User: Fold this.
Amino acid sequence: MTDCAIVTGAAGALGGAVTRALRESTATRGLELWLVDSPRHLARAEQLATELGSARAMGANIAVAAEWRSVLEALGAAGGVPVAAALIAGGYRGGAPFWASEESSLDDMMSGNLGTVAASLRAILPGMVERKYGRVVVIGSRAVERPWTGAGAAAYAASKAAVVALAQAVAAECLEHQVTVNAILPSTMDTPANRAAMPEADPTRWVPLAAAAKLVVSLLEPGAGHVTGAAIPIYGRA
Assistant:
C-alpha cells in the first residue's frame, strides 16, 4: 500500500502551490499525490500531475458523497491509502452589502465552502480513524477572527466561519484517534485573480502563495501530531 495525500481544488492558485510544496517538503516528498478538482478544471490538474510525477488527477464534484466514493475507490484500487488531505476547494462571492446581494449568495457560499468540506470530512475521516492516523487541513479566512473585514462579502465570511467551527469540533472528536484537523486563516493572497480584481492594491502586503502553502504542508507532516483544532492566522501585512 502507498501513503497518499489528497489535495482538493488542486487546479487553483493555492491548491497548486500546496501540491508543489508537498512535493518539495522532505517530510511529505514520499507521498503519492492525488489532485482532485471539478471536471471543468481537470485539464489543469492533469497538467500539474504530469509536471510533478508520482501524482494523479481526478475530476469530481466533492460536495457529492457518491463522487467522493468514486475518488476513494479509485485510490484504493491503485493501492493508495490517504494519510493527509488539504481541503482547499471552495468559492468566493462578494462586492455588495448582504441586503443587496443575490438571494442565492448565502446558500451558494455555504454549499461551496461548508458543503464541500463537510462532504470531504465524511469521506476521508472513517479510514483515517480506523487506521489511527491522519492529517487534515481546511481553509478559513481572516474574516473568521475579524468578521468586519468580511464587509461586502458577508455570506462568504459566514461560510468560512462555519468551516472553521466544523473543523474544530471534528478535531475534538478525533483526539483519541491520532487524526489532526486544523485550519489556516489567510487574508488576501497574492494570486493572479486577486491582482486582476484589485489593480490599485499593493500585493506586497498580501500573503504570498508559497507562505500559505508552506503553512498548510507543515500541518500535514507526521511531526505535526500535537497540533489539532487550531485556526492559525496568516495575514501578511494586509
User: Anything to note?
Assistant: The CA atoms of residues 143 and 163 lie 12 Å apart. The chain has a mean pLDDT of 95.
